[in-house]
């Protein structure tokens, strides 16, 4: 493998990892603070991708599609939250798993009804549909760099909010002791709705910007969900830092695994997870 | 170390980051005595009990049980050695009946590992012991009641029953009378007093009346350190203790 | 927790069992020429009931929610498929022990890794390990990839030259599965009422307290995990015999999700509930599949409704019919008493 190829894989791994981080951060926040395990999280990623596909076809403009799709996704998240998650806060994880599993069935099938079972593509949008010369031998897609940039910015924002704002402190406190936070006069209900909506928005947004990079197909939410679970397990529940580094590790491992050991590629992330569990059963940054 | 010392600590210390919760504590417990640990909130009493029962390891120092070092052992191992413990926050099996709670407690010292085929006999012995213990704690009328359906006071009595069921030689009781009314407190006081012919008790308690009535010796802790340790009378009349803990008023103390 | 149910439950179950056991007698009268098809369906329900029961040991009894139980189900299927010789039937005398042995080993290895995790973590790691095996099998050559492996001959159950039971005959196989299910039920019933079962109850209720009492809770959980896995693998083996093939979907998390659905439909922690749940699930599936090709929506909605409205499942209805439950729930609405304990992540706030 020559240097240029290595460079491309490195960047790809980073880009994939950063996208995973967006999704995983929503997942880990929802787990950590609300104590809810939401299997339908991956379905939101799928919905983001399909929405952007649909709206891009309608408007002919990718950016407009995203602008319209984001509020739709948030609205959907709010509906789900108010309808179902309300009852799940107080319940066992088992019931959350079951209910959200039922949700996956409903959402996946709804997608089939609306958009059918075909595989779709969204073209890489202007003005990023070009390659840029990074070094003598290394050309790289500008759009991918854009995606990385966006993810990094969002990561920075999330980090900033969590670490340096009053909201962030409330979130971190809520992750440790929800009742205490309530006792301090904070409307936990609203806080939860906010967290859930943000989590959903991040995931759907990840689906939207990832759309030009992957194929939009039924069940795409399922596989990304499991990968994100692995990320959260490795990183530690409720830890944004853990989600970040876990995502980078998994992103790199998947990308390099696919080129170095294709036969074992799909297993690599689970082997890593097993290794982490052996040493740190609660994750790297628990 | 003389023969009748069941438990002793030497230089026991526990830090949490910058906070020294237990600071160089030396004290000992004699066989068949009731030894109370007193101190204002934050004095380190619960941390001390957690160190003794193995729930947390010490940062420094030793815990000697029958002259053998046990610091650093897990709660599980220490329970197996004959040290039983009750918790400050009621820690029972809410969905099981009282009898089942005590049976589980008794089993660990009486049953085999998977030995249900081995022992209709053991099952019976376990059940008998559990009934015995419930009777001692005056809970036998609640034997088949689900634990979570009982009153708070009864649940705390169940906790004591469970500790008894494990037939420990040393009992560590963390505020056994917390939240109890006067009658229940009197009941429990009587119960604990009756146990000394078979057991050794270490008590953390706030209820001063009960402590002075029950305890043979008292160790007073403040800010993680031992302020004074000695027979009840000595503590009761100690100026140091009175200043720090009881305030400068005369008698008439309740926690 | 008490594992003792009202007499009517026993009567109902006995009646249902008798109905099922005598199907060959009345099947044709009711279903006409569909009878053979129905027999196949019924056999499948028995097999899935075994699968669901095995998960109940983990989820309902010990309180460990596994989203990867299909790992063992598929493992049983693939062990059968891969170990069967190409041109003649295997002998059940070594096939069954092989399936048990393989699943016990895998259960031990996976168990050692996952048992140390709690609550949400346990759910996620079991899911991930299930998927690991899924990907491994579906991308591998020797296991036929996504197509799976066909089973040419069902194993034979013979002593020397005499056939004890002809497992190729649908009726005999049906009874074989029925007997296996009953054996599994009786085994679990014994297990849960034994000392071991009591310890599992205690672990479910307050693991921390169990440890403080001196119990090596991880060991008990591991044993339960392995037992559940072995039972699921036996079910998988039977399923492969019934379908005639092993394929990766049997390992996938959708299968793990399906068996969880059976648990909630039937009622967890009861051992007999999952049997009802498996039947209920298959019946609903049959109805929905014939109603619309978009049946997953119906199934999804059913599960959502079940969680919201009927969390104790059919068994719950049998044990405490609505009128009686209403009386009991008002009594239990008294404010939460101070029985806090255990780690926050695993504590269930509603029974």
From TrEMBL, chain A:
Compartment(s) of residence: Cell inner membrane
UniProt keyword annotations, A-Z: Amino-acid transport, Cell membrane, Membrane, Transmembrane, Transmembrane helix, Transport
UniProt-listed CDD domains: TM_PBP1_LivH_like
Membrane topology qualifier: Multi-pass membrane protein
Membrane-traversing stretches: 18-42, 62-85, 142-162, 190-211, 223-244, 256-279
Pfam families xref list: BPD_transp_2
Family membership: Belongs to the binding-protein-dependent transport system permease family. LivHM subfamily.
Protein name from the UniProt record: Branched-chain amino acid ABC transporter permease
TrEMBL record, chain B:
Molecular function terms, GO-annotated: ATP binding
Cleaved signal peptide residues: none
Keyword Signal set for record: no
Entry keyword set: ATP-binding, Nucleotide-binding, Transport
InterPro entries named among the record's database cross-references: AAA+_ATPase, ABC_AA/LPS_Transport, ABC_transporter-like_ATP-bd, P-loop_NTPase
Domain ABC transporter stretches: 7-248
Protein name: ABC transporter ATP-binding protein
Organism of derivation: Vreelandella piezotolerans
């Amino acid at each position: 493998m020559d240097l240029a190829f290595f460079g491309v894989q490195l960047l790809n791994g980073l880009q994939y990892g950063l996208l995973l981080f967006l999704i995983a951060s929503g997942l880990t926040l929802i787990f950590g603070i609300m104590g809810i395990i939401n299997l339908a999280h991956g379905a939101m990623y799928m919905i983001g991708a399909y929405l952007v596909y649909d709206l891009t076809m309608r408007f002919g403009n990718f950016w407009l599609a995203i602008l319209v799709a984001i509020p739709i996704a948030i609205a959907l998240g709010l509906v789900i939250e108010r309808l179902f998650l309300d009852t799940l806060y107080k319940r066992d994880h088992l019931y959350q798993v079951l209910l959200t599993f039922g949700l996956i069935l409903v959402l996946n099938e709804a997608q089939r009804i609306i958009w059918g079972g075909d595989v779709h593509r969204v073209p890489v949008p202007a003005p990023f549909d070009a390659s840029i010369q990074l070094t003598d031998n290394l050309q790289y897609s500008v759009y991918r760099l854009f995606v990385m940039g966006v993810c990094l910015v969002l990561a920075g924002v999330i980090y900033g909010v969590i670490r340096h704002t009053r909201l962030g402190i409330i979130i971190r406190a809520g992750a440790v002791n929800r009742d205490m936070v309530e006792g301090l006069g904070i409307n936990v209900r609203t806080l939860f709705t906010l967290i859930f909506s943000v989590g959903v928005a991040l995931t759907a947004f990840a689906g939207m910007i990832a759309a030009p990079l992957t194929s939009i197909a039924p069940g795409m939410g399922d596989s990304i969900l499991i990968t994100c679970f692995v990320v959260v397990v490795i990183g530690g529940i409720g830890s944004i830092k853990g989600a970040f580094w876990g995502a980078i590790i998994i992103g790199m491992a998947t990308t390099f695994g696919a080129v170095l050991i294709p036969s074992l590629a799909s297993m690599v992330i689970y082997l890593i997870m097993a290794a982490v569990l052996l040493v740190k059963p609660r994750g790297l940054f628990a | 170390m003389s023969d009748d010392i069941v438990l002793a600590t030497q230089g026991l210390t526990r830090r949490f980051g910058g906070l020294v919760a237990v600071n160089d504590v030396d004290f000992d417990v004699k066989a068949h005595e009731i030894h109370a640990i007193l101190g204002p909130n934050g004095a380190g009493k619960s941390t001390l009990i957690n160190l003794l029962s193995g729930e947390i390891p010490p940062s420094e120092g030793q815990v000697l049980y029958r002259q053998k070092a046990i610091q650093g052992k897990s709660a599980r191992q220490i329970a197996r050695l004959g040290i039983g413990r009750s918790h400050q926050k009621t820690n029972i099996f809410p969905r099981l009946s009282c009898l089942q709670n005590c049976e589980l407690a008794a089993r660990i010292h009486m049953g085999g590992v998977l030995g249900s085929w081995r022992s209709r006999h053991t099952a019976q012995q376990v059940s008998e012991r559990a009934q015995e213990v419930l009777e001692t704690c005056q809970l036998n009328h609640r034997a088949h009641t689900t634990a979570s359906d009982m009153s708070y006071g009864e649940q705390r009595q169940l906790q004591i029953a469970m500790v008894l069921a494990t037939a420990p030689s040393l009992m560590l009781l963390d505020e056994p009378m917390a939240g109890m009314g006067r009658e229940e407190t009197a009941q429990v006081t009587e119960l604990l007093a009756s146990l000394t012919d078979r057991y050794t008790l270490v008590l953390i308690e706030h209820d001063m009346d009960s402590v002075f009535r029950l305890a043979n010796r008292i160790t007073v802790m403040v800010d993680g350190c031992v302020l004074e340790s000695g027979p009840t009378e000595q503590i009761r009349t100690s100026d140091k203790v009175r200043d720090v803990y009881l305030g400068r008023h005369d008698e008439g103390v309740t926690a | 927790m008490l594992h003792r149910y009202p007499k009517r439950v026993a009567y109902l179950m006995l009646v249902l069992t008798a109905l099922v056991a005598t199907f060959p007698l009345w099947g044709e009268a009711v279903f006409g020429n569909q009878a053979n098809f129905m027999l196949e369906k019924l056999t499948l329900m028995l097999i899935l009931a075994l699968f669901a029961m095995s998960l109940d040991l983990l989820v309902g009894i010990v309180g460990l929610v596994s989203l990867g139980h299909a790992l063992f189900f598929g493992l049983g299927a693939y062990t059968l498929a891969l170990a069967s010789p190409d041109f003649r039937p295997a002998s059940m005398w070594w096939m069954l022990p092989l399936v048990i042995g393989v699943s016990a080993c895998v259960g031990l290895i996976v168990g050692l890794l996952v048992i140390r995790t709690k609550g949400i973590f346990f759910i996620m790691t079991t899911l991930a390990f299930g998927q690991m095996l899924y990907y491994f099998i579906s991308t591998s050559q020797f296991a036929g990839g996504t197509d799976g492996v066909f089973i040419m001959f069902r194993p034979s159950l013979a002593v020397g030259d005499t056939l004890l039971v002809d497992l190729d005959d649908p009726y005999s196989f049906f009874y074989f599965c029925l007997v296996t299910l009953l054996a599994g039920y009786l085994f679990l019933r014994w297990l849960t009422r034994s000392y071991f079962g009591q310890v599992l109850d205690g672990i479910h209720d307050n693991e921390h307290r169990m440890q403080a009492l001196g119990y090596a809770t991880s060991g008990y959980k591991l044993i339960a995990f392995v037992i559940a896995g072995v039972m699921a693998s036996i079910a998988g083996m039977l399923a492969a015999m019934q379908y005639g093939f092993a394929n990766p979907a049997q390992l996938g998390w959708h299968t793990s999700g399906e068996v969880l659905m059976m648990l909630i439909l039937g009622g967890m922690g009861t051992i007999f509930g999952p049997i009802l749940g498996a039947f209920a699930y298959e019946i609903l599936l049959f109805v929905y599949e014939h109603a619309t090709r978009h049946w997953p929506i119906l199934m999804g909605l059913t599960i959502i409704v079940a969680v919201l409205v009927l969390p104790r499942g059919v068994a719950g209805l049998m044990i405490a019919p609505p009128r009686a439950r209403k009386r009991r729930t008002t009594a239990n609405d008294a404010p939460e008493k101070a029985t806090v304990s255990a780690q926050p992540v695993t504590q269930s706030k509603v029974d």
